[in-house]
Amino acid sequence: MKIAVLIKQVPDSWAEKSLTKDTFLLDRDSSDKVLNDLDEYAIEQALAWQENDGAELVAICMGPESATDAIRRALSMGVDSGIHIKDDALQGSDAIATSRVLAAAIKRGGYDMVISGVESTDARMGVVPAMLSEILDWPQLTFANRVSVSGSTIEIDRVTESGITTMNAELPAVVSVVEKINEPRYPNFKGIMAAKKKTVEELSCADLGVDSVGVTNAWSAVAAATTLPPRAAGTKIVDESGSSVSALVDFLAERKVI
Amino acid sequence: MSNIVVFIDHRDNAPTQHSLEVVALGASLGEVHAVVVGNSDVANAVATHGAAHVYVYEPTSQAVTGEVAAMQDAIATAASQMVLVPSTITGKEIAGRLAIRLNAGVITDASSVDASRQATQHVFGGSTIVTSKVNTELALITVRPGSAEVMNGTSGAVQNRTATDSAKSAKISATKPAVSAGRPDLTSARVVVSGGRGLGVAEGFAMLEELADVFGGAVGASRAATDAGWIDHSFQVGQTGKTVAPQLYLACGISGAIQHRAGMQTSKTIVAINQDADAPIFDIADFAIVGDVNVVVPALTQALKARS
C-alpha cells in the first residue's frame, strides 16, 4: 500500500494571527510556523500501516521554502519521503486551487490512499479532502475516529454533529482523521537523524501542469478586513464564600440574559 | 427575485434550528428552494418556516455525494446563483464538492450574507472580521448559527424529486444518531456553561448541567476537560473543537488558553469563574469571579432557581 500523507505548515496555534494590510492574506511571518497539529494524527495513523503492513508513506506539502521544516518533522516521525510543492505563483491560492494542485501531485504517484487531518488550524475550512475526493473521483471517508483496511476495502466511523456513521469503500480513497483517533508520537533522536537522509522531491506548478492558481485566480476574494478591538476585562470580584453570586445575578439581569 | 437553494440538516425527524436560520437568511435575500434528503416530515416542517419550495429526495446510502447530487439537481432546477448551506462538517464538505463540480467559488463559516453575495466571516477566533465576495456566477456560502431569526407560519410547496450520484462514494452501513440529552445544540444555544480543568473531577459536569438547565442552555468544555475524559470530545469548545457565540458564555474552571478563546470570544457576554486570579480568561471576561467553582456554581444555581 502506498499512502500520500497531506501536511501543511501553519502559524503556531498558540500565536495571535493577523492578515497582511494590503493583500488580506494570512501574515505568515508574524508568528512561528509549525506542522499543523491536526496533521500529526494522520501521520500517526499512516505510521501504523507502515509498521504493521509495510505501507510506503509519502508526505505531500504545498507551501513556501519554510515548509521544509514541516516536511522534516513528518519525516522524523517516520514518513518515508516527501514531496514539496513550491512555487511563488501558489501564494494566496484558495482551497479550490490548493486541491487542484494537490490532486495533480497525487495523480502522478500511484497511491492507494490519501490521508490528512480534518482541517488546517489557520484557514479552518475543512473542505480540501472533500474537494480532492471530487477531483480524483475517489470515495471520501472523512472525519474518521476509527479506520480499518482489510484487503482493498476500507471502513471508517465518521463523527459529525449528527452522530456516528459507519461507511466503507474500495481503495483508492481519500481519508481524513479527527484528533482522538490516536496519540501522535514525538520524533526521537534516531528518527530525526534518519530524516536527514530521506529524500524530498521539489515540484513546481509547471512540473505538475497546473495553472490558474494563486491570489489573482482565487474564486473568492477578500474585499475588506477589520481587526476588532480586543475585549476589555470587566468587573472582577474575589470571592471565597459564594457571596459574589447576588452581584452576578444582578449583572446577568442587567445584560438581559435571565 | 433570485432563487436561493438552501440545504436542510435534520435530526430526530426535524430540521435543525441552524438550518431554519439559514432558510430565514435566504428568504431575506430571495426565494428559498430548500433541499431535504430522506425525510418528508422534515420537508413539511421547512415549508412552514420560510421556504417557498421544498424538494424532497429519497434517503441515500452514498456518504456526502448523495446530498451533493440532490443539491446539484436543485441548483439546476431553480437556476440558482446563490447556495446557502449550514456550516456543519457535512455542510462544508457538500459546498466543497459542489465548488469543484460546478466551478463555483465557496466561502465557509459566514456570519452574514447580503444580496450582492458579499459575506462576512469572523476569523482568527473572532479577532478579525473579513468581508469576502465570490467571483463566479454561482456562489456557495456556508453559514454559521445565529445568522437570522427563524420564520414561522409560512406555507411553501413540497415536491418529491430524485437524484443519484455517479461519483465514487463510500457506502453507509450503519448510523448512530448523536444523543441530544434534552439540551440545545452547543453551537446554537443562547447560553453555554463550560467547564475545564478547574472542576477537578468528572462529576463537576453534573453541577454544570444543572446550571445549564436553569438557563435552558448547553454544556461545553475545554480541551483539558475532554482530554481528561470527564466529558465527550464532541463538547469541546475551541480551535480544534466547536466555535460558539452565545448570548452568555459561562467559563467555569477554564484558564482560557488562546485555543479555547478562539472558540468562544465572540460570545456576547462572558462570565468567568476561576481560582487563579491570573487566568487569561479574565482578560476577556465581562464579569469575573476569582473563587472556587465548586462553591460559586452551586450558589449561582440556587440563586437563579430562587429568582424564577
Written overview of the protein:
The complex is a heterodimer of chains A (258) and B (308). Chain A is α/β, with parallel strands linked by helices. Chain A is built from seven helices and 13 strands. Chain A is globular, with a radius of gyration of 22 Å. Chain B has eight helices and 17 strands. The termini of chain B are far apart. Classes of the chains: A alpha/beta (258), B alpha/beta (308).
Beta-strand content of chain B = 25-35%
Largest interface: A-B, 83 and 88 residues
Helix proportion of residues of chain A, in percent? 25-40%
- Number of contiguous helices of chain A: 7
Average pLDDT of chain B works out at: 94
| Helical amount of chain B | 25-40%
Low-confidence stretches of chain A: none
The overall strand count of chain A is: 13
How are the SSEs ordered, and which strands pair?
The complex is a heterodimer of chains A (258) and B (308).
Chain A: E1 2-7, E2 9-11, E3 33-35, H1 39-53, E4 56-62, H2 68-77, E5 81-85, H3 95-107, E6 113-117, H4 128-136, E7 140-150, E8 153-160, E9 163-170, E10 173-177, H5 189-197, E11 200-203, H6 205-208, E12 220-227, E13 235-238, H7 245-254
Parallel strand pairs in A: 1-4, 1-6, 4-5, 5-11, 6-10, 7-10
Antiparallel strand pairs in A: 2-3, 7-8, 8-9
Chain B: E1 3-7, E2 10-11, E3 14-15, H1 17-27, E4 31-37, H2 40-46, E5 53-57, H3 65-78, E6 82-86, H4 89-102, E7 105-113, E8 118-123, E9 128-134, E10 139-143, E11 157-161, E12 171-177, E13 191-195, H5 204-215, E14 218-221, H6 223-227, E15 248-252, H7 258-261, E16 269-274, E17 287-290, H8 293-307
Parallel strand pairs in B: 1-4, 1-6, 4-5, 5-11, 6-10, 7-10, 13-14, 13-15, 15-16, 16-17
Antiparallel strand pairs in B: 2-3, 7-8, 8-9
